[in-house]
Predict the 3D structure of the following.
Amino acid sequence: MKLTHIEHIGIAVKNLDESIRFYEDVLGLACYAVEEVKDQKVKTAFFKLGDTKIELLESTDPGGPIGKFIEKKGEGVHHLAFAVDGIEKALVTLQEKGIQLVDQQPRKGAEGLDIAFLHPKSTGGVLTELCEDKNKS
Amino acid sequence: MKLTHIEHIGIAVKNLDESIRFYEDVLGLACYAVEEVKDQKVKTAFFKLGDTKIELLESTDPGGPIGKFIEKKGEGVHHLAFAVDGIEKALVTLQEKGIQLVDQQPRKGAEGLDIAFLHPKSTGGVLTELCEDKNKS
């Protein structure tokens, strides 16, 4: 499996506008997109720094994954996403190695990427995502 | 303040050897250093991916910061570290903006970097570190 870089870091926040202000006014980054991902029950905001994006995630529903995460653990880093060449083959390899997958097949995520999540039980507690941007290749 | 890239992602793990195996055997990354940081009561392992390092942190003392983090939140991402040009000036700017600092002045961290932590109360729940590698500049 060939990981190329950390595609993004997903951060669960209570209030997207307040958090955008922190990353813009304090850290000096520029929010370049805000996008609602309805099936994940989140509103997201994106920043870019070097190779890696920061994706802030505000829940639009307390019963959604980010709402539940914040209730259990508070605000903080929710997942790490690695860019991979050949996501379908990578998922097969991971299954052969006994890694539990949340997504058996890639699905479309934010920004049109092909994405799949691995289960945190198999990854030392870190919810881990693989991404491939097929528009680039 | 000029952030240049995400220097590293610190991940709290229960068992360093098991986690190293996951990042090496499953994700295909290479551990290039293991280092004990006695004053932080941790043993660390480093991986590099693009611009960014992954720093696994195993507590050497249940009363240390990583031991307490795992007791409260479980294994997972513990902190994000941003590379900055001019760490002293950045800390002054942050204080002027009302950000609570853990370290008023930079101190030496792993790999000889100058580092300082910002308090998660001021950063939306994410323990945030600034780093500068003065050997490079």
